[in-house]
Recover the amino acids of this structure.
């Protein structure tokens, strides 16, 4: 079992929809959780970063961590075609090594 | 401020050939990483370097070697390329838990 599991999709939604992307993890030592966005033929870029449990909001994006169930979520409100990309979740303990999920491909149709 | 740069952008090798992928960062980060990304597999860590002069194996180190030449540069070497090493290779550097990725090197081994 991979330490971080993510449904690869693809996920296709109409413009304006609320998108929910999810990951589960198995390592109880993880304290840092991140979401990266990767456009086609580009490197991943950091989108959201949370420490321990709780929610974090940034514009249309909300990251949520539930350490009791080892569940990580990213919500995108009012989704736009420009949000079409692959979204990677990852977890990290204090070692600094990040463990990535497989990535979920999202397509937002106009 | 270029961030993380990688060369070359694209390379074709024949089985058995060797090559070195170059990576440099100008953000004064201590930690640097090499990943490979394959369809359905997400990002897998090959090697990482927590600081200048140190390197450690990641999830998939076989067939690769690395050199942390100085704080800025971290190279990845394939001594005898195999078709299974056809992939997209990403270098990253980090401060604490946030990683910054380069644009990637697409490698095709025939």
């Amino acid at each position: 079992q991979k330490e971080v599991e993510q449904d690869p999709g693809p996920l296709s939604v109409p413009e304006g929809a609320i998108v929910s992307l999810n990951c589960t993890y198995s390592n109880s030592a993880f304290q840092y959780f991140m979401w990266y966005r990767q456009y086609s033929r580009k490197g991943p870029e950091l989108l959201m970063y949370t420490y321990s449990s709780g929610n974090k909001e940034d514009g249309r994006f909300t990251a949520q961590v539930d350490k009791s169930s080892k569940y990580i979520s990213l919500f995108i409100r009012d989704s736009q075609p420009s949000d079409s990309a692959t979204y990677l979740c990852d977890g990290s303990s204090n070692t600094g090594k990040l463990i990535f999920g497989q990535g979920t491909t999202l397509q937002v149709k106009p | 401020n270029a961030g993380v740069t990688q060369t070359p952008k694209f390379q074709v090798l024949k089985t058995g050939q060797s090559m070195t992928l170059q990576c440099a960062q100008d953000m004064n980060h201590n930690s640097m990483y090499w990943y490979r990304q394959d369809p359905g597999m997400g990002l897998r860590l090959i090697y990482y370097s927590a600081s200048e002069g140190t390197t450690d194996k990641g999830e998939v180190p076989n067939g690769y070697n690395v050199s942390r030449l100085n704080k800025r540069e971290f190279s990845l070497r394939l001594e005898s390329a195999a078709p299974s090493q056809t992939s997209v290779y990403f270098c990253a550097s980090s401060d604490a838990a946030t990683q910054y990725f380069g644009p990637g090197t697409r490698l095709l081994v025939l």
